Every structure is written in C-alpha cells, then in structure tokens.
Amino acid sequence: MWIGSNPSRLYCDAAFGYVEYRANIKAAQAIANGGAWRLEATDKAPTKSVRVVVIGESARKDYLSAYGYPRNTTPFLQSANGVFVDGFTTSAGYTIKSLSSILIKSENGVLDYGRNVVSLANAAGYETFWLSTQTYTDFKHIVARLAFQANRSSFFRPRSLEFVSDDMNLLAELDEAIALDTGEKPKLIFMHIMGSHPKSCKRLANSDPRPFNLPYGEDHNCYLATIAKLDRFIGEIVKRLNAAETDWSILYFSDHGLGHSGAKNDAQMRHNERVKQAYEVPLFALDSAATKRVLIKRRLNASRFIDLFAAWIGARGEGIDSRYAIEDFPNEFDPIVSGENIDDLADDPALY
Ligand SMILES: [Zn+2]
C-alpha cells in the first residue's frame, strides 16, 4: 500500500494517473535536491523502536486544557507524562510558509530543501514513513516534497477540496507501519493531520462526539471538538505503541494557530496573521520511558525545531545546533513573525 512498493491509495485514485504520478515524483525529487546532511554521530535508536511525529493543523495552544484552557478539551494529554513546551512560536499563520520554516533547514533566510526533517531521519538510519490526511493538490507543495523523501508515503489525493479524510483513518495505516518488518532499522513515522483546520465542523466524522455547547456559535464548538479529537487521536497512538511492546516516542506540534472573526455569538475560527495567538502553538513530546510531566515555559522559534528534532532522534553534525533539545534549550528568542514583533500584535484570547 505504500508508494514505491505496492499500489497506494494515492495512485489508485482515478483522478490521478500513474504516468502523472511518475512525472511528478521525479520533479519532486529534483526539487528536493540540495545540501546533504553530514552527521558526526548518531545515538543509535533501539532496534524496533518507533518514533511518531504528529504534525498538527490550526491548533491554538490556549484551547488545550493541557495548557490551561478551563474547559476539558484534552483529558488524555493533561495526565500524560512527557515534556510540554509553553512558548513554541511559529513564524507564519499559514500552513506552507509555516511548515517550511519548521521542517526545513534555512541558511541566512534561504531554505535548503535537501536538509529537512525527513532527509535527516533517513541519514540517521531510520526507516521513514509519511502518512497524511492533508491534500497536496500541487506537487510543488513543500510538504509533498518532504513526503516523497520518506521511504514510504501515503496520502490522499481527493477529487475535490470539499472531501477530506477523517484523521482517525490514519490509525489503520499506523498499525501497518508498526507491524511492518524493517529488520534492525528503527521507525520514524510522520503523520500530517487535518486537525482543526478552518470549517472545523467538517473535520468531525458523524461518530465523533461534540461535547461542547458554549454560547459562541457552532464553528467555535466544533473547533473545541476537534481539539478533543486530537486528544483522542494521540491517546489512540499511545495505545497502539504500548500494545506493540516497543520503546516509543511521540512528538507533536501544530503548524500555526487561528484567530476569531465574526460576531461573538457566532465566532469563526479563521487564519489571521494579525493576532499573536495565531503563532502560539502546542509542542510536546511523550515517551514510553517518561515517568513525570514537565512543563517548560520559555519561548522558542519555529526555525529551532530542526535542532530539537535532531536531538530527539539522536543526530549530531554540521548545521545542527546541539544546544537545543526539547527538554532544555537556550533562552534566546527572535520576536519577529510575519515581519512584525509578535508582542505588538493584537491579543485575541480564547473564549470559554
Ligand atoms: Zn495550517
């Protein structure tokens, strides 16, 4: 079912012919060429260990009860052991621009496409997977470039943008990835989800609970329900990794936040780069070996994620600042986001 091995759901889609797929993957690989990682050392991950990176969508930190929201949106995460960073700040309020600065190394402000989280994990000896419910409508899409660098990738090519897949569908693919025999190689599985993308009611399947009935309108209540769905999604991943009886770690962040628009009794959660909460997102790591819960309240720029990620997978080398790890990192912060100081942007607090 993976691209590169058996027919995948991507190129099985009638809207997307095999020839076109081959042409595009070639283009994607050509675009991906750039600097290569030169690693000095890799702390070898235990054989059969599994690391999962969940790339979230449109989740504001202040709507997770794990970060203090007064409604119980994230009961699982509130009691989970691990490291929670309160201060991770994206550089943009939209997916592509924001993920580019998080997932790809930049040198003097110029993205070096070849040096990204996927190529780093490949270089460090992991078998890499990319599972996604996001729609990459264009193969020049930066995330599609990354997806194709994984050893195995699988994502939807919907017939229309109105059709989106349920994030929970990815769990069956996660099961397959966990079960796959990769010999001695540890696994690193990226999961790019639809999360809380605007028009959040569409992110909920009929079977998803809608437990919130606050007086700020349907879109807002659906948004809260998508945060609760994220909490269940992470809980399901943990359940599966525990069942696999292997060492595991999960790293989660959201690509950006959102702002409120419209009347207060009909609040719409929308992209909005003019409010500071659009940049303030959750970042946390859960781990099978974690025995306590740690909250680090310190600001961290998105562009430092690649250093953090390198430490998380045990890779060191040229272009990696080894002072950064999710457990501890320097208190240095560049407040400029989308060309402005984040502290000068409007405050748009969570509604509860
Ligand atoms: Zn996004």
Element layout with pairings:
Layout: H1 9-12, H2 18-32, E1 39-42, E2 50-56, H3 75-79, E3 82-89, H4 95-103, E4 104-107, E5 110-116, H5 117-123, E6 127-132, H6 142-147, E7 152-155, H7 170-179, E8 187-192, H8 218-243, E9 248-254, E10 259-261, E11 268-270, E12 283-287, E13 293-301, H9 305-313, E14 315-317, E15 336-337, E16 340-341
Parallel strand pairs: 2-8, 2-9, 3-13, 6-7, 6-8
Antiparallel strand pairs: 1-14, 3-12, 4-5, 9-12, 10-11, 15-16
Helix pairs in contact: 7-8
Zinc ion binds at residues 57-58, 95, 255-256.
Describe the structure.
With 352 residues, the chain is an alpha/beta fold. It folds into two domains: 1-32, no CATH class; 49-136 and 145-150 and 157-344, Alkaline Phosphatase, subunit A (3-Layer(aba) Sandwich), CATH 3.40.720.10. Helix content is 26%, strand content 23%. The protein is built from nine helices and 16 strands. The chain has helices spanning 9-12, 18-32, 75-79, 95-103, 117-123, 142-147, 170-179, 218-243, 305-313; strands spanning 39-42, 50-56, 82-89, 104-107, 110-116, 127-132, 152-155, 187-192, 248-254, 259-261, 268-270, 283-287, 293-301, 315-317, 336-337, 340-341. The strands form five sheets. Strands 7-6-8-2-9-12-3-13 form an eight-stranded mixed sheet, with helices on both faces. Strands 1-14 form a two-stranded antiparallel ribbon. β4 (104-107) and β5 (110-116) form a beta hairpin. α7 runs parallel beside α8. The longest helix is centred in the middle third of the chain and has 26 residues, at 218-243. The chain is globular, with a radius of gyration of 19 Å. Mean pLDDT is 87; it is low at 1-23. The structure holds zinc ion. The site of zinc ion has 5 residues, from loops.
